[in-house]
Target: D-galactonate dehydratase family protein
Amino acid sequence: MRIIDAKVIVTCPGRNFVTLKITTDEGVTGLGDATLNGRELAVVSYLRDHVCPLLIGRDPARIEDIWQYLYRGAYWRRGPVTMTAIAAVDTALWDIKGKYAGMPVYQLLGGRSRDGVTVYGHANGESIPEVLDEVARYVELGYKAVRVQAGVPGLASTYGVSADKMFYEPADARRPTENTWSTPQYLRMVPELFAAVRERFGPDLHVLHDVHHRLTPIEAARLGASLEEYHPFWLEDPVPAELQEGFRLIRQQTTTPIAVGEVFNSIWDCQRLITEQLIDYIRTTVVHAGGITHLRRIFDLAALHHVRTGSHGATDLSPVCMSAALHVDLAVPNFGIQEYMRHSTLTDEVFPHGYRFEDGYLHPSEEPGLGVEIDEELAGRYPYDPAYLPVNRLTDGSMHNW
Ligand code: CS2
Ligand code: MG
Model:
């Protein structure tokens, strides 16, 4: 068994996706998501120019060896571009291994640990009443968990609120749009949002919220404490997480659960957060954290420290990543929850897949491998269309975190 082809497919069925397709000498193919929102072409070049040529002739069964070869061989280790490229290779090789074994990948990861993968959807609106109506739609669809994001009074726009419903695409312009931010206004709004959700939907619905890296630890501590009476399922990305020990301050002040990690790309980004139990959920993903092989290492470290999984699942992670995530989610012992921002119908046509939503759960495909393909002819009709994530400034014009 040898790799005879490794090609990068770039398509934009409403948003950009980068996909790696590996083919063996026996005609077996595997897919890996390589999408890095706003920096897609950097990963395309990393794969096309520096990785794919080195894969030709290798044994696709040697997943771990190829992972180590690409990680150690880069010399310049880690980082979102490198680890997304390695992730795509790793994911495609697990897809191939499942097809050769004639099993869905979760069977190769230890088999089913649960009946289904609990997911959460995204309810958002400019006003709190609008958010409540969106939450009602998700409850009606059978979701047991919903993320809530509302506009901040006095601000023209904010993270997580868009005209789109059921999915949310933040990369909205060829040059980054500039948002304005006010922490005091925001800190006043969020407790009102949670009070309204609990008032209308009661205590049992899991309610999540994404702060999106915008507070200082003491502000996050204040927000966490102000929400305790509404028992959030989690408060996500309360502060930028380069200073992992900074989370100690939040931990000392509040019991509100913390989720972090969608921007992490290796175990080293979260090693202290996990081993000191500074977080409750780790949000690392197949596509950005080195693939299934590395993600399992992060999740195993988390399992030893009472930290559960809560992988990122936004629309800029393709159905290839979602398919792979569900196989990991089904098998790991310390599963927490899976984000599920639905893709557009056109995206689902470009990436036919076997996962399905039912009564608040996602179920991965039972097909051998990951259970996802790419319609290359259809993908070819939608060329890359540059789009950037917004940037954020404070009301005095200072750069802030988006
Ligand atoms: C967000 C994402 O889903 C989330 O939790 O943080 O929407 C994130 O902003 C995008 O994936 C960035 O590309
Ligand atoms: Mg987030």
About this structure: The pocket of D-mannonic acid (ligand 1) is lined by residues 37, 170, 210, 212, 262, 312, 314, 316, 339, 389 (CB under 6 Å).
